[in-house]
Write a structure and sequence with these properties.
mainly alpha, CD2-Gal4, two-stranded antiparallel ribbon, 24 helices, 2 strands, globular, nucleus, transcription, metal-binding, zinc
């Protein structure tokens, strides 16, 4: 498909500059740029050819990334501090245990890989010591890619309109409004980068890009459209992949155009941090979409934010919200990779003094701080005392003795689930913590899986690759709890503990975990590894349950004969 003179320039007999996605003449006239393609036999919008070229460039870049491990350049943003001071990546060194060596992910103590390794080893040994049946054969349709039961995503009518469009936009203004409304529903409650006044203003625009009055509003609109379109393409409509990549390119172009100059005052510094927050969100949604490593971008944003707090005395509500989002980003990434965070350890003391309009962020900030503290304590002391770890839980999130596990909130489930190494680590055991704490951790695993399943149905999960790790850990913790419950040792788990969950809810977390990981694997290719590991564990868990059932049946039959 060769680029030719557009229909409008040919009709007026003027020179066409053959630009994409629209020539200058059509752009000034606010008209759609069309040209006649001889091979197809009909007119083709030049914006469609531009979209194809962008897709080809993305595929070529992906091929180059597979051939060369060098990362693509990150959009140039002014940096006030050294990146090494805030980078979450530890200095390169030889791993202590070569079994856990990996350059792409953390596989060491505290990870789901180590947890499943210990549980599978235990189950295999018990299976080999039993003469009832041989080891099962693991057959997964996800391993050969021949899955016939693919997940069906709800239809969302956000197709690119081939009719007359505004040349400054890639999609119809109504589609832009739908994307901004989806951002307000899916992203804003968890990461409020925009103030309520800014969100109401942008939602009131009939054509957001044309009616934006300054660079700050354009940055917000480009960031919202890029993030929302990526979420829609990942979770709702895969036909939006090209449009999502184009909106992402628009965001990169806008960032590079604004921050191409070296001068930067305090106001532009805040915009710099905001732009980096949008890049972090893109990387949380689709790893690698920000053209850099997640921990480097988060570290750079945190360093710029800390420098901004030192340079200015004003710490308004916007700084509080941006600081909260940065703390949430960095603590999430630090806990996922089990790395220390300078920003989380030395966050500005003024962070957390929210106004009444943003007071709802205070409990979430306490949750992120508690989870990061627990994670770092396990990193520094692999065998801590349960009392010291329970002391790290804020008083407002502690579970009373009379509460049922099903009454846990998502915040309580996240905090108590972080305590699972107290009885799942190799150096610990079921007797390392009290039965009440063990019951609370298991209940947290069940509640976390149930809450995540609800969020997944509502399409409100931002980061699949961090959530998949947590879901796999929660499923393994619940499986370990079921294994302990079959040992019939009252000193480990009293009968009332396992009975508090109800007979119907014992298997439900396992089924929900399988469904979640299968859903993640459909939308994120590396998620298949999580699903395969979970599938192997569940099959061994069923086999172990079958061994115990047969052994119990044999004992009962022998007892009947003796009587």
């Amino acid at each position: 498909m060769a680029l030719q003179t557009c229909k409008r320039c040919r009709k007026r007999r003027i020179k066409c500059d053959l630009q994409l996605p629209s020539c200058s003449s059509c752009q000034l006239a606010d008209a759609e740029c069309l040209f006649f393609d001889d091979s197809l036999g009909h007119e083709v919008p030049r914006s469609y050819l531009h979209a194809l070229n962008v897709k080809v460039e993305e595929l070529e870049a992906e091929i180059r990334s597979f051939r060369s491990p060098q990362p693509a350049p990150v959009p140039q943003l002014p940096v006030h501090v050294a990146l090494d001071d805030y980078s979450l990546q530890p200095p390169s060194q030889e791993p202590a245990n070569p079994r856990y060596a990996s350059s792409d992910s953390y596989l060491g103590p505290g990870s789901s890989a180590e947890l499943l390794d210990n549980l599978l080893t235990t189950l295999v040994r018990r299976k080999l010591s039993s003469p009832h049946s041989p080891l099962p054969k693991f057959a997964s349709t996800f391993r050969d890619g021949s899955d016939e039961h693919t997940l069906a995503f709800p239809a969302l009518n956000l197709k690119i309109n081939p009719g007359k469009l505004d040349t400054q936009s890639l999609q119809h203004p109504q589609v832009q409004r739908a994307l901004i409304e989806y951002y307000a529903k899916a992203v804003q409650p968890s990461f409020p980068l925009l103030s309520p006044a800014q969100l109401r203003l942008l939602l009131g625009y009939e054509n957001p890009l044309r009616q934006s009055s300054n660079d700050c509003e354009r940055l917000l609109i480009h960031g919202m459209l890029a993030i929302s379109s990526q979420l829609v393409a990942r979770d709702l409509d895969r036909d939006q992949t090209i449009a999502a990549s184009l909106w992402t390119e628009k965001l990169f172009d806008h960032i590079n155009r604004i921050y191409s100059h070296s001068a930067s005052d305090a106001i532009n510094g805040r915009h710099t941090v905001l732009a980096q927050c949008f890049l972090v969100l893109l990387d949380l949604i689709i790893p690698g979409s920000s053209r850099g490593s997640t921990w480097e971008i988060v570290g750079s944003a945190s360093g710029n934010y800390a420098a901004l707090c030192e340079e200015t005395d004003s710490f308004d509500d916007d700084c509080q919200r941006i600081g909260f989002c940065l703390f949430a980003f960095e603590s999430t990434v630090a806990c996922h990779f089990h790395r220390p965070s300078l920003f989380c350890n030395s966050a500005p003391s003024r962070l957390g003094a929210f106004s009444p309009e943003s007071e709802f962020l205070s409990p979430s900030l306490h949750v992120f701080r508690a989870m990061y503290s627990i994670n770092q304590h396990f990193t520094l002391d692999p065998d801590p005392s349960p009392a010291a770890m329970e002391a790290l839980i804020p008083a407002t999130f502690r579970i009373p003795a009379s509460a049922r596990p099903s009454e846990m909130s998502l915040a309580q489930a996240q905090i108590y689930l972080a305590l699972h190494p107290l009885f799942t680590s190799p150096s610990a055991g079921p007797h390392s913590c009290s039965p009440e704490l063990l019951n609370n951790i298991a209940g947290a695993a069940s509640a976390f899986i149930a809450c995540t399943s609800k969020l997944n149905r509502e399409h409100r999960i931002i980061s699949i690759w961090t959530t998949a790790e947590s879901v796999l850990q929660a499923g393994a913790v619940w499986g370990a709890y079921l294994i302990l419950s079959k040992q019939e040792d009252p000193s480990i788990l009293p009968t009332r503990s396992i009975g508090a969950f109800g007979s119907g809810s014992l298997m439900e977390p396992l089924l929900q975990c399988s469904s979640l990981l299968a859903s993640f694997a459909e939308r994120w290719k590396p998620g298949r590894h999580y699903f395969q590991a979970w599938e192997a564990f569940v099959e061994m868990l069923w086999a172990d349950t079958d061994i115990q059932r047969r052994a119990s049946s044999n004992y009962q039959s022998q007892h009947e004969l003796l009587v």
